[in-house]
Amino acid sequence: MNRFDLPDNLPVPIDDGQCTHLKVGMKFPVDILMRLPTTSQRPVDIVSQPRTIIYFYPRTGKPNQKLPDGWDDIPGARGCTPESCGFRDHYQELQSLGANVYGCSTQTTEYQQEVVERLYLPFDLLSDSKLELLNHLHLPYFTLAELDNIALIKRLTIIINHDTIEHVFYPIFPPDKHSQEVIDWLKQNPIK
User: Fold this and answer.
1) Is pLDDT above 80 for 192?
2) Which residues form the Alkyl hydroperoxide reductase subunit C/ Thiol specific antioxidant domain (predicted)?
3) Which terminus in the chain has less CB density within 10 A, N or C?
């Protein structure tokens, strides 16, 4: 099985309440967001479009790299590559709906650049390797001893209108269909 295919028996993540504090109308820490390194080395752009979509994911693997032991058994862990490809494949439609798109993980920018090139992502990935957004927003995460107990952000998506949270998707399943879920929400909630 390759990283683009999801096993049929993936456990479905449950809403554990770890995002209930991320309320609609809450100010998003744009100052922190603007400091995060990007794969293009350009600053985050939250003004060219009325909305910014940030999808957070645990980590992406590299081709021929073994998945961590038990990765498929962790609800919400598997599917970072298919999720990113979904946002890639719907990127033009998301932009036509007035949204910038960014992916964000705690992996380093150098690591993320390989993913952007390999998957032909037309948008930047943001590195929260210093855990600034994770800590400020109290984002849900998990760790694995096999990965040196690095904080891995649980899969969630935040839609920001300028500097204000408009919507939070959490938990996300299945990850390969999530970009369509975001498109559906944008169409049902046009910018006023």
Assistant:
1) no
2) 78-163
3) C
